[in-house]
Amino acid sequence: MQPLAVLGATGYTGGLVLEAARQAGLPVRLVGRRRDALEAAARHGEEVRVADARDPVALATAFEGAFAVASCAGPFLTVGFAPVAAAIQAGAHYLDTSGEQPFARLVYERFDEPARARGVTVLTSFGFDYVPGDLAARLAADGLEPLDEVVAAYCVDGFVASAGTRRTLGHVMTQPQVAFEHGRLVESRFGATTRRIRFPAGEHTVVEWSGTEPLTVPRHTDVRNVRSYVRAPKAAAWGARASRVAAPVVKLSGAFGGGPSPERRARERFAVLAEARGGHGGRRVVLAGRDVYGFTALLVVRGAEALRAGEARSAGVAAPAEAFDARAFVARLAPLPDRARRAALTSEDAPTLRPCVGSGRSASTSAISAVTGRATRASA
Ligand SMILES: NC(=O)c1ccc[n+]([C@@H]2O[C@H](COP(=O)([O-])OP(=O)(O)OC[C@H]3O[C@@H](n4cnc5c(N)ncnc54)[C@H](OP(=O)(O)O)[C@@H]3O)[C@@H](O)[C@H]2O)c1
Prior knowledge:
By secondary structure, the protein is an alpha/beta fold. It has 16 helices and 18 strands.
């Protein structure tokens, strides 16, 4: 069986992806720049290939014969581009854990044509950032297009960032970001707009951030305006003006520590909400779960399995809900067997789309159980 090549296999997220892939029975190949560390992380019989993420020749050899590449080596704006090119050249599908909107934008621009020509699918930002927002948006939009607006909003309780995430954040804070306004991408910035959003656990202020939904949602949904938000106090929007000053400090903090323990991760709870509004009414969809890093690893592995099964609807660079049917993919996120359950999702906390409240003349309620794949829809 062809392996899934995991680049950044010595890292915190790479380690979780390896674990989830083994649980799923996917053969893995560990790729990174330090042979000793790779060999220490490999299990008996697993392949190891040494390649720096900036070395196209070494990457080509490392990815040869893999059915897909999962890149967990960041910051992606710094080291992320050569792995995408090398995966395409090797004829392997590609997924990554980037949460960097400017990187995703360049991946769509640069790699769509080469990936189409090679017949492979490229899925960027395919982790907690920002798959749930894109899937929830697609489900919220069902039957209501054309839409005036889609809003994605993330709410996380108890999150502890890994060192790699902090280092990456230090880079992203100084990058320009975009929103989708009146049918086109426009410049925006962290905190450019704020709103009040009713999450299942209560109403909170959310602040605009650099989610990739403004890039991905218009690819599969007829909509004029898309913005992405994260729960944060209003003051965070003002504080964002100081991000150029704060960025080096945040980057420096990424030199210390690893990632949260499994016990810490198990305490994290998230709710990702999408609101769709248009002339035909509106709908809210919530995707809820726990363990941000475990969920990221689960998404990468379920995405790789779906690519392997030939479920991708197109070659090229694709948004999550463009590559896969959103309902079918949510159903793929069913709970893992017992051992992995601790690290990722429990049956109670598996992604679920909760009853939603619509607005407008044909408001509707929709609920899907990710565990059973059962879908119900009823008028509100
Ligand atoms: N958005 C999300 O939902 C989400 C979730 C998880 C992670 N992420 C992102 O994923 C990335 C990894 O995070 P992490 O916490 O796993 O960080 P980490 O523990 O520091 O791991 C980074 C990995 O990248 C490797 N790497 C870095 N530069 C490399 C190079 N030039 N050549 C080869 N390998 C290189 C490192 O190798 P060495 O061990 O040799 O240093 C390590 O394996 C970050 O950018 C983070 O923001 C995003």
